[in-house]
Specification:
Layout lengths: L17 H12 L28 E7 L9 E5 L5 E5 L5 H15 L5 E11 L5 H10 L3 H6 L6 E11 L4 E2 L25 H14 L9 E5 L9 E5 L13 H5 L11 E2 L14 E2 L2 H12 L3 H11 L4 H16 L12
Parallel strand pairs: 1-4
Antiparallel strand pairs: 1-2, 2-3, 3-5, 4-5, 6-7, 7-8, 9-10
Helix pairs in contact: 2-8, 5-7, 7-9, 8-9
Length: 345
């Protein structure tokens, strides 16, 4: 049984100011979603994206006390160089899901967080299960008491964890809006410097490929990489990918049996049959340019690279996952999308 915080009522939720909303709309309109793909070698997915910063054998850090959110065991920790990282621990399927999804997206040119698979993590100030202790303390209003009794001279070790380093940049948020929903992608405007329709469709198609059903706004991030106010260099990216490769989390049968196209002839995508009735992902038709973009980039991956992707992330039944992956690539590659009148690519 999970403990959880009560959700605030509508009256308790903060309301964004007009200035906040305007700055966010400006940033979203100019958002990019895709870069050039990485140059992939045969061993690319074996290479840790945080090499030189995170030791995959033993990483040491100090806990940063904070609110326990969601249901996955996790905590924030500070490295010796002062950088703050997120650690996911325990036997959760979110760990292989996020490692595989972020490495795949990065290889294809989509902005993503950098996830490392770490055999041992030594955390100073941590109790045996910091997430559940903090969650219980919050339920009884004892957060500060819990934090005061942390012993930073002692370390607890965790095995087989995922370490997340966030994609660089400051989050573009308002008092009431965290992240972005898929229904907002239509606000991105290529004429204002944002992504093209083809690039936006490529992002939608990759979300469908991964079965990114838990797509509430907080699970996508709007990031500012510029210096001006309002932001002049915005990135719209997928963020929390721990429930992907399902539905639900790391479910080979469910993933294999979830088709790319809801309507192949029209290149229609839908997540209505997934949990939350699709959440923020509205039914949408994909442009031929968007389909071709994803087909080209996915099609460049070899069977050996796909196998390495799943193996390095900690998946089991590798042949089954590789087969499902390649079948989904074929569904995209073998289709053709009709023209969308009035839509530029």
């Amino acid at each position: 049984m999970w403990l959880s915080f009560p959700k605030p009522s509508d009256a308790e939720r903060p309301v964004a100011s007009a200035a906040e909303r305007s700055a966010r709309e400006w940033a979203l309109r100019r958002a990019k979603v895709l870069f050039a793909p990485s140059t992939l070698g045969a061993d690319s997915f074996d290479r840790d994206p945080n090499a030189g910063t995170i030791d995959p054998h033993l990483t040491t850090c100090t806990i940063v006390p904070g609110e326990a959110t969601g249901t996955t065991p996790k905590f924030e920790c500070r490295l010796q160089n002062g950088e703050k990282i997120k650690v996911k621990y325990g036997w959760t399927r979110e760990i292989p899901a996020e490692i595989a999804a972020t490495r795949l997206l990065q290889a294809l040119g989509f902005p993503s967080d950098r996830m490392s698979r770490v055999a041992r993590l030594r955390c100073y100030g941590c109790v045996v299960s910091p997430f559940h202790f903090r969650l219980a303390a919050g339920t009884f209003g004892l957060e500060r008491t819990f934090e005061r009794h942390l012993d930073y001279s002692r370390a607890t070790e965790f095995s087989d964890v995922a370490v997340e380093r966030k994609f660089p940049g400051d989050a573009v948020e308002t008092s009431s809006d965290k992240g972005w929903g898929f229904h907002e992608l239509s606000k991105i405007d290529a004429a204002s410097g944002g992504a093209t329709r083809a690039e936006i469709d490529a992002l939608r198609l990759m979300a469908m490929f991964l079965a990114h059903w838990d797509n509430k706004a907080e699970n996508q991030r709007l990031v500012c990489q510029g210096s001006a106010v309002p932001c002049d260099g915005t990135i719209a990216m997928l963020h929390d990918l721990g429930s992907d490769f399902g539905p639900y989390k790391v479910n080979a049968k469910g993933w294999k049996n979830t088709p790319i196209w809801a309507d192949a002839r029209a290149c229609g995508l839908s997540m209505k049959g997934m949990p939350y009735d699709g959440a923020t992902f509205e039914d949408v038709r994909i442009s031929e340019a968007g389909r071709q973009l994803v087909a080209d980039r996915l099609g460049a991956l070899t069977t050996d690279q796909i196998f390495t992707l799943f193996r390095s992330a900690g998946f089991s039944d590798l042949d089954q996952w590789v087969s499902a992956f390649e079948d989904k690539v074929r569904q995209i590659a073998n289709n053709r999308c009709p023209s969308l009148s009035g839509v530029s690519s």
